[in-house]
């Protein structure tokens, strides 16, 4: 049994302070002054802040197929360090989970290796890049709940129309990667002084915006659970704001687009290269405003591990992607909460309660008889993001060396301490 003494946390937007007693997998009692018995594992949380386990609905686990970048075990460790106890894994694996057999094999790997809860997403089309639809019904019967061709926009209108219908009929959710190939072509970056100086081909926000505009027309005819992954631009955000209450549209933003704009690029480094790209200061400000106003529903990292020789090189030659799952809460607390851009309560809402509701994950709140997936943070403890202490297999983030606050001290999963900061 675990007794957490003097834990501060939010319930219904109110800051509470209580003791929390855990027995087995569940929280069995919440009260003030619970007596500590000799056989309890005691955690003094007087200087800590308690949250439910965080949820990240956009993660590249890389297994099977790309284990040299990351694997289920290493991403689990990174997640636990970052206070994340539930993730959704993208389908750009090898083999792609575009059929029941590969989906079930990946789920078996997850069962054997994961220390957290991983929901494996399935592809919408065969091999992600084709126009041949997967068997949605069979995948649903095998346990699939979420669909995504992340990394590839669906180019064909009829294909997307049919996908939307299958997602609706089978009561699934689709997380879309908005990208128009005729606009992107071989572009890598937002147009900027940086792209001009380094002679890097660029592409505009219209790649994202145009595909959303097409999809909204389709959703007006036949609406489904439609979630926009890694939103980047002000104009796309305005379109979502216009239709999110009329259609079943939700959206996420990742920390990289919230905290960076193309003017922040310090040198010709592949660490800044992600897809969709980091955009303008105007777009960054719009995303922060959308976060505060509630147009943006949740934050997800798009954790995309790559090895050093794929990222610590010049921009043109690098792979797209950044890591982030193990420090997302800390960096957002440091940059947004401490600077009073959003509240701490809002951050927890964006990283747990909202994704939990949108994806219908049925994860726990902090209440009696709930599963004990909990995280204790020292919000005042400072640390530096150090390549040598990152537990992910990959180190590809431009935030290396940043001074951060909000250190994870304990991650509890189903009543067991799975991460402790020693």
TrEMBL record:
Molecular-function annotations in GO: allantoinase activity; dihydroorotase activity; metal ion binding
PROSITE patterns (alphabetical): DIHYDROOROTASE_2
SUPFAM superfamilies, sorted: Composite domain of metallo-dependent hydrolases (SSF51338), Metallo-dependent hydrolases (SSF51556)
Cofactor(s) for this UniProt protein: Zn(2+)
Lineage: Bacteria, Bacillati, Mycoplasmatota, Mollicutes, Entomoplasmatales
Keyword annotations from UniProtKB, A to Z: Hydrolase, Metal-binding, Pyrimidine biosynthesis
Family membership: Belongs to the metallo-dependent hydrolases superfamily. DHOase family. Class I DHOase subfamily.
Keyword Hydrolase: yes
Protein name: Dihydroorotase
Pfam families: Amidohydro_1 (PF01979)
GO biological process: purine nucleobase catabolic process; pyrimidine nucleotide biosynthetic process
Domain Amidohydrolase-related: 49-415
Primary role: Catalyzes the reversible cyclization of carbamoyl aspartate to dihydroorotate.
Classification via CDD domains: DHOase_IIa
Domain of life from the UniProt record: Bacteria
InterPro entries to which the protein is assigned, alphabetical: Amidohydro-rel, DHOase, DHOase/Allantoinase_Hydrolase, Dihydroorotase_CS, Metal-dep_hydrolase_composite, Metal_Hydrolase
GO cellular component: cytoplasm
């Amino acid at each position: 049994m675990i007794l957490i003494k003097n834990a501060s946390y939010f319930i219904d937007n109110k800051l509470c302070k209580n003791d929390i007693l855990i027995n087995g997998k569940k929280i069995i009692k919440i009260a003030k002054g619970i007596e500590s018995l000799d056989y309890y594992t005691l955690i003094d949380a007087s200087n800590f802040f308690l949250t439910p386990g965080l949820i990240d609905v956009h993660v590249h686990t890389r297994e099977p197929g790309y284990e040299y970048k990351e694997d289920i075990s290493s991403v689990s460790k990174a997640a636990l360090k970052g206070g994340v106890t539930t993730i959704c894994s993208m389908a750009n694996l090898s083999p792609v989970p575009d059929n029941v057999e590969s989906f079930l094999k990946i789920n078996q790997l997850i069962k054997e290796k994961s220390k957290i809860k991983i929901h494996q997403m399935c592809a919408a089309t065969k091999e992600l890049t084709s126009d041949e639809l997967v068997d949605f019904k069979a995948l649903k019967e095998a346990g699939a709940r979420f669909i995504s061709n992340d990394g590839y926009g669906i180019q064909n209108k009829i294909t997307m129309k049919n996908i939307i219908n299958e997602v609706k009929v089978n009561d699934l959710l689709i997380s879309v990667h908005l990208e128009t190939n005729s606009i992107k072509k071989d572009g890598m970056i937002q147009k900027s002084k940086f792209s001009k100086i380094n002679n890097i081909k660029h592409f505009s926000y219209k790649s994202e915006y145009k595909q959303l505009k097409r999809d909204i027309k389709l959703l007006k005819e036949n609406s489904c659970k439609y979630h926009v992954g890694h939103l980047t631009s002000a104009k796309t955000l305005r379109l979502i704001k216009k239709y999110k209450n009329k259609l079943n549209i939700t959206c996420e933003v990742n920390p990289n687009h919230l905290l960076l704009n193309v003017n922040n690029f310090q040198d010709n480094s592949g660490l800044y290269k992600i897809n969709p790209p980091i955009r303008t200061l105007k777009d960054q400000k719009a995303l922060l405003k959308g976060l505060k106003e509630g147009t943006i529903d949740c934050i997800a990292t798009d954790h995309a591990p790559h090895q050093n020789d794929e990222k610590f090189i010049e921009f043109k030659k690098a792979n797209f992607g950044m890591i982030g799952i193990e420090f997302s809460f800390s960096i957002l607390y440091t940059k947004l909460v401490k600077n009073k851009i959003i509240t701490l309560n809002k951050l927890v809402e964006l990283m747990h309660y909202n994704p939990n509701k949108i994806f219908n994950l049925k994860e726990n709140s902090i209440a009696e008889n709930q599963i004990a997936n909990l995280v204790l943070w020292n919000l005042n403890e400072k640390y530096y993001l150090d390549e040598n202490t990152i537990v992910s297999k990959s180190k590809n983030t431009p935030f290396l060396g940043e001074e951060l606050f909000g250190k994870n001290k304990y991650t509890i999963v189903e009543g067991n301490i799975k991460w402790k900061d020693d």
